[in-house]
Amino acid sequence: MTITLPKDPRWFQIAALSTLLTGGTLWLGLEFRWSNSLVIVATALGVQWIGNRALRQPFDPRSALITSLSLTLLLRAASPPWAIAAAALAIGSKFVVRARGKHIFNPANFSIVLLMLCTDEVWVSSGQWGSALLGATVMAALGLLVLSRARYAETALSFLAVFTLLAFARALWLGDPLALALHQLSNGALLVFTFFMISDPKTAPDRALGRCFYGALVAAVAFSLEVVWFVTAAPVWALAFLAPCVPVIDALWQGPRYRWARPATTSLTATKGGNYA
Amino acid sequence: MPNRIVVASAVLTFLVGSAAQAFCGFYVARADTGLFNQASQVVLVRDGNRTVLTMANDYRGEAKDFAVVIPVPTILEREQINVAKPALIEHLDAYTAPRLVEYHDADPCRSEMEYMLERGAANDAVPSPTAMRARRQAAELGVTIDAEYTIGEYDILILSADDSAGLTAWLTGNGYRLPDGAQSVIGSYLKQGLKFFVAKVNLTQQAELGFQYLRPLQVAFESPRFGLPIRLGTVNADGKQDLYVYALTRTGRVETTNYRTVRVPSNMTVPEFVGDEFGEFYQAMFAKSLERERGRAVFLEYAWDMAWCDPCAADPLSNQQLRELGVFWLGGQRSRGGAADVFVTRLHLRYDGETFPADLKFQETGDRSNFQGRYIIQRAWQGDTSCSGGQSYLAALQERRTDEAKRLASLTGWPLAKVLERVPGSDSERPQEPWWRRLWGG
């Protein structure tokens, strides 16, 4: 018996993120506000539709769904209007903030950081996932599945490797037990970030070498923000600060542009200048 | 935006004003920190990078044996340290404690309209060596005494050091008993650039001031660090300790960023006998909730706008009291006619080195929604139930009591059979009635 898997890795990403959302709600009792989640999905799909229509492209909800799920998992908003703003900014940024034919910021990352800069009404609850190693393993496994389909694991893996190295090196230097480094690394929010945000192939550098360098750079900056400046949700900030470096990295190490694999049965064709999905 | 929410909650207070107690139940009892042994209490006032920390513990030994060693981010000047009145923390504890409320069932033989109409109408001093000698000895060990103060009944030193061995040797040599393993933690803090605030009781001062107990110490500083160093407290591994953190902030609820913050189970109806043993109930429920989180969560017990409460376990703190606790953004007395600009979060954790290996890190969120640990007793109607309404009321009451008993057993881990024994008219006392007996009102 053979099982035919869809070619587009986004389906796996949607499945993995939905599993996390369900698992988080059922087992960890995470407080996702359903009103916020619903308005996020509705707004993201709406803005995606408008953007696709304005550019005369076929409507593709997959990336908008992934962004919605990422926002639901990471962003906390005091009231629905902020959730709407987050979704609109996220999807809007894909169509507006672009360089060399691709969008610069990971959409969810862009809107989270922009809103956190502007208001106290949104925040990232880094601690809510706890540090259950089992949960962390499941999350990592789900993420790896998605990444292996996307064949773009380098950014996430180099980020994780450098962050891990720094955490252990710091623990050794301070004379702290390694349990402290493990505690820092098994933070659920860090793993959600690693496997579902920095791993976004559309905003990663084009060449494998560039992606490794970029992942390591984000890790170094995130780690410094966390331990030197005591910034909460440091990886999210680091990614947003460093995203504008990607066009520079691409200029240094040129490579083929990433396209989501498309199922053979569809009649869609790639749009000029990169797609906006 | 924050203004809008502040206004909204002020309006709500005004609207519910007179009916407040009835709305959320009549206050019966509270589960304050006195229930837990070895409990420390910390008030964290935070806005921007400014922090005011008030620390109290339930130390009951000899004053001469008392000492604290606390890592602080900066050298503190004399005016950055203060001694607070214990009553402030006691009041804050009472105001934020989990609470038991009660309601009374209505007379089942009267119509609801009659009832509504009626309700509407009713309405150690640093030991012997002289300061010079102490400084010389400190210098030899690579320890710098950055500052030295006597404040209230405390002798306080701010220390920095080249390495942990020197500091540990100095502390031990000066009568501070450090548990094994403290040196590596001290070393870690020193490398992170922290200073040490050490305090002992000055017995002469204490006798002059006439205080029988040790008053809470307060420190004010500016640092991006928003957290609490708990690791030194876990080194001696003298079992688990309870810690209460009361955060007073401007924007909203405070949560931990490196541990899960979980709401304590709340708003549940429990059997009437809990009224007599609310303390035991709360302790058992807390232990059970902790077990569900494998001991690794911080519990939210209260999150509320300081301007009001419903029901009130104690009155909200006055502006004057909040100011004494270090709420620096409030003006002088009665500047705003209420403390609407303060949001209080009460966190409760039980920790040791295994379940809480790292220091606590916090963040302030934009969440201003109110939460309280609140448990409800629904008192049964004690009067005449001979009417037909009375009979169905009794049947429903029996079911309700059984449900309450099951809920209590699951919340506390108490055996259901034991709980049922204490619930009047529950299933344990009478044989189970077939489910269909009252199906058609028979």
What is the terminal separation of chain A in angstroms? Answer: 33 Å
Shape of chain B: elongated
What is the strand content of chain A? under 5%
The chain pair forming the largest interface, with residue counts per chain, is:
A-B, 34 and 37 residues
Question: Which oligomeric state applies?
Answer: heterodimer
Whole-angstrom Rg of chain B: 26 Å
Biggest β-sheet: strands ordered side by side in the sheet of chain A: 1-4
Strand content of chain B: 25-35%
Helix and strand pattern of chain A: HHHEHEEHEHHHHHHH
Present the secondary structure layout.
The complex is a heterodimer of chains A (277) and B (442).
Chain A: H1 9-26, H2 34-54, H3 62-74, E1 75-77, H4 80-96, E2 98-99, E3 102-103, H5 107-118, E4 122-124, H6 133-150, H7 154-174, H8 178-185, H9 188-196, H10 208-227, H11 234-242, H12 246-252
Antiparallel strand pairs in A: 1-4, 2-3
Helix pairs in contact in A: 1-3, 1-6, 2-3, 2-4, 3-4, 3-5, 4-5, 5-11, 6-9, 7-8, 7-10, 10-11
Chain B: H1 2-16, H2 20-23, E1 26-30, E2 39-47, E3 50-57, E4 67-72, E5 81-83, H3 86-96, E6 99-104, H4 112-122, H5 131-140, E7 143-151, E8 154-161, H6 164-173, H7 182-191, E9 195-201, H8 203-209, E10 217-222, E11 227-228, H9 231-235, E12 241-249, E13 254-256, E14 260-263, E15 268-270, H10 278-292, E16 297-305, H11 319-324, E17 343-351, E18 360-364, E19 371-372, E20 374-379, H12 388-412, H13 416-421
Task: Provide structural commentary.
The complex is a heterodimer of chains A (277) and B (442). Chain A is mainly alpha-helical. Chain A is built from twelve helices and four strands. Chain B is 31% helix and 27% strand. With 442 residues, chain B is an alpha+beta fold. Chain B is built from 13 helices and 20 strands. In chain B, helix 6 (164-173) packs across helix 7. In chain B, the strands form four sheets. In chain B, strands 2, 3, 5, 10, 12, 14, 16, 17 and 19 form a nine-stranded mixed beta sheet that branches. A four-stranded mixed beta sheet of chain B has the order 1-6-20-15. In chain B, strand 7 and strand 8 (154-161) form a beta hairpin. Chain B has helices at 2-16, 20-23, 86-96, 112-122, 131-140, 164-173, 182-191, 203-209, 231-235, 278-292, 319-324, 388-412, 416-421, and strands at 26-30, 39-47, 50-57, 67-72, 81-83, 99-104, 143-151, 154-161, 195-201, 217-222, 227-228, 241-249, 254-256, 260-263, 268-270, 297-305, 343-351, 360-364, 371-372, 374-379. Classes of the chains: A mainly alpha (277), B alpha+beta (442). At the A-B interface, helix 8 of A face helix 7, strand 14 and strand 18 of B.
